[in-house]
Amino acid sequence: MRFNPKRWARAATRCAAALLACAAIAPAVAHQVDTNAPLTLKDEGSFFVGGRDLASDTLSTLPQADPNGTVTVEQMYVQYQIPAHAKAPSLVLIHGCCLTGATWETTPDGRMGWAQYFARSGYPVYVIDQAGRGRSAANAVSIGGVRSGRLPPDALPAGFFVGREFAWTLFRFGPKYPQAYPGMQFPLEAQQQFWKQMVPDWAYSMGTPNPTVPSLGQLAARLKKTVLVSHSQSGIYPFQTLASGASGVAAIVAVEPTACPAATGDVSVYTRVPVLLLYGDFIAQSAWAPRYAACRSFADAVNQAGGHVDVVSTTDLGMHGNTHMMMQDRNNLEIADFITGWVGRNVH
Amino acid sequence: MRFNPKRWARAATRCAAALLACAAIAPAVAHQVDTNAPLTLKDEGSFFVGGRDLASDTLSTLPQADPNGTVTVEQMYVQYQIPAHAKAPSLVLIHGCCLTGATWETTPDGRMGWAQYFARSGYPVYVIDQAGRGRSAANAVSIGGVRSGRLPPDALPAGFFVGREFAWTLFRFGPKYPQAYPGMQFPLEAQQQFWKQMVPDWAYSMGTPNPTVPSLGQLAARLKKTVLVSHSQSGIYPFQTLASGASGVAAIVAVEPTACPAATGDVSVYTRVPVLLLYGDFIAQSAWAPRYAACRSFADAVNQAGGHVDVVSTTDLGMHGNTHMMMQDRNNLEIADFITGWVGRNVH
């Protein structure tokens, strides 16, 4: 067949339109980082930020240890990895309710988590355990006090120790345990591994702001240029950190925050850095609908005040079935690619 | 000067003797691994082993969560790194009393810990948090029960929450807080970071054997050929794991175990794998003297039964001033080199 320029131009236009349409609706299927290559690090390790000394006479209730002494409580554990050829900014990963930094590691079904993937993407990664949880010591002084009869039972901290039946709905695996939403992307076949990630959460007994907030401020000042990436219950922390005047916060990425700052009043402090509020699927029919609406109002207020808040749902990106635990969903690395793309475009 | 063969031979003999003498007493000053090169990993991540489901009606004492539900308790968190060119065996690092897996990471004064150093030495490294501590969930059911008045105060777990004054002597920084032993090698200038590593320890309320023991058995079976490296309070766990019939245990390295199995009775099960019991300095004048003597007797009994237990003090290696926290002492990497050398010679 002879080459026909007009016919070719028409076909090319149709082809380009089809490609554009596909790009707009298709999920990203190729990761931007080779997950099979070796992970090459300049350094890794851990340290603690914050904390306060506490003298007590109800430390131990065992005969082999002294009940008297000084412990440190409310410190924040930070585990970090610096890639061999690191770029700025760094990312601080802040887990949510009833969980620890394990949130960002291997997924329950054994796939790569965001912590390693972000390091492979070239970012220094700092994974924290919130004060009082995981490798950040819980304050057990009142337990010894109550057990030894020196304090009343209501001196014990109020715990948020969440059963899987409650978590199921909260994390939007489905409308009610054990029913799953159709097309839901959390790897339910490995749910036993996920339940083992859950720990007792004393955050609601630790005052406001949570001691994790000033520790995040210290960490950000030390890192100089960092993105605070929160999840769920920790969603308010980066905003509180920013409002406290901490230096070094380059942006905030809030994955399904439980709360945002109030949309009324002075929101000017939140105009200082770009903000991404990221949501999954099934929001409308869940307890997250009013939280989403409140954060949407906050975003509108900050944007009207000259700030830059993007509110994005994974469904806007052509992805479907994402849960509250999207960092562990089957398409977790595609969502990670979206986040690093957003950081690349917005943090300079 | 003319070459004189006899004179040369005499000088060479003197020189060789001097070198041998130096080698026998001098601490190893050069590390066997380049700590400045990039750390190149094939993979890293985490998973959980063991645990049991527990239904409770005293989970949460907060209005926003259901007190009823099912949680998982007694699981063991495992964080691993596989070097790009890994060799066998793997090493499982098991922290001691009142601490978590952070024990093996960066030292309090910011130097490289054993976990990274062993990975750089080519070994797959598995760092665990004992059941009930760190990222391994504590069982908080009784706290909710007592706080809500449904259980008596003595239903609370007996905690081993150790103050720094007690820990100071236990860890042999000195005879009594805040006096240090002369020449002591722990980086006391960074002690605040170390106190922040300490967490409440519920191990003594968890029954015998501790749930960590069967989990170590599962882990060893999965790893097929691994060295269980214990510290202090966890010292008895690898022996209990071996005695339980677990497969995959290639050797045991016990860093200052609090207890060894009894020297009397049948010790034949402990003849199956090579064992290293490793001690620091200042043992004689400390609470570790009777523990050392008991483990020495155990070693003698196993060796008489045809086993292979090496009892080594860092002072035997020409090192001085080592504490109970020798993995964080100033010469920690020289001790690590001794351990990898011992593993190389004894695990085939």
Automatic annotation (TrEMBL), chains A, B:
Residues making up the signal peptide according to the UniProt record: 1-30
The keyword Nucleus is annotated on this UniProt entry: no
Keyword Signal: yes
Alphabetical UniProt keywords: Signal
Name of the protein described by the UniProt record: Esterase
